[in-house]
Design a protein that fits this description.
The chain is an alpha/beta fold. It is built from 16 helices and eleven strands. The strands form two sheets. Strands 1, 2, 3, 4, 5, 6, 7, 8 and 11 form a nine-stranded mixed sheet that branches. Strands 9-10 form a two-stranded antiparallel ribbon. A hairpin with an 8-residue loop joins strand 6 and strand 7. Helix 2 crosses helix 3. The longest helix is centred in the middle third of the chain and has 26 residues.
Amino acid sequence: MKDIREAIHGLATPFKGEKDRKRLLAQIGDVNYVLLGEASHGTSEFYTHRAELSKQLIVEKGFRFIAVEGDWPSCYMLNRYIKGYPDSGSNVREALGDFNRWPTWMWANREIMEFAEWLRHYNKDKPHHEKVGFYGIDIYSLWESMDEIVKYLQNKDGSDLTAVRRALQCFEPYGKNEQSYGISASLYGEGCEEEVIALLRSLQDRWKHLQTQDEAREKALSAELNALAVKGAEGYYRTMIRHDAESWNVRDRHMIDVLEKLMEFYGAGARSIVWAHNTHIGDARATDMIEEGMVNIGQLLREKHSGNVYAIGFGTYQGTVVAGTEWGEPQEVMTVPPALPNSWEELLHREGAEDKLLIFDNEESSLNDVTIGHRAIGVVYHPKWEKGNYVPTVIPKRYDAFIFIDQTKALTPIAAEQMYV
């Protein structure tokens, strides 16, 4: 343990603001993918630090879009507001109104509201092809994405509706109940896989045939990515009934597919920022996930784009967080207790109760062969079961850099009753 502490002491430097972010940007260099993690979905500082880093990446390095661990339809509504499209909400609260499915606080919060306003202002006087986008790359929007496809096609030629009608008819018996569909598809072979593949094919690459660089082209992309979300969700719910690890893989591979499609849409040389939990952006091969046969965004991108990816993890010693005690239960502000002894977070705290930046640019680091517990808090959290919240991790192999915030506080959700005030 003494050697580990000495290695941490040699790596850790104070993290105080813009000057330290600039040092981090210099390390990032010219990569096309910057992955910004978080150790929870309900901590204010993770959101605000990611926002400040993203601003600098956009302004100083020309990054074109942000892809987040959120659903395509709700994030696309916010994207429309950020880009100043018509009928995208008269204010940012309205633009956040589609984040109405649990956990609502994950994106409908004051921290995102302030960042969205900055993005809208940044985009205001720019031509369409220079505006920065904001998109969701997750997999849970099966029903919402179907609805959006219908809206997109309702004014099109009637023949365009054939594939979506067949998909709707296939899913209709399940009453928008994902578990019911998953059981039927997985156990009884009564799924809708063929219908959703046909739906995706009917909408695939339509945006490529539009020569304009305006909203119509992006709407066509959105229709395709809603179809891709339907396909991904169908596979996810069908798989999760029997194989938890494989359903995780379906989800992260889907997020890669969406990300790559966005890179194609933005054109040669496009550069993207990804916001997702540490468990998605940190290389799975440096954790015990590999023992379960699990992959994630960080691993898949590094394998496909070696040397062109920079992953930054986040963590905290103690504070407060927004989470629920069970899936779908009301959000609560919970206490995050001091990190367990000899965990990554506790060792960093022991070096001094201050925020720290660690850059792992030394391949010979003595930490490269050390597995240390690293805290991960989900949308469901039980502080009293703290021991189960740690992922065995080889930190320098999981991330390229790490930002440690010693004391953190819960983010500020926008309550549903305030959304349209």
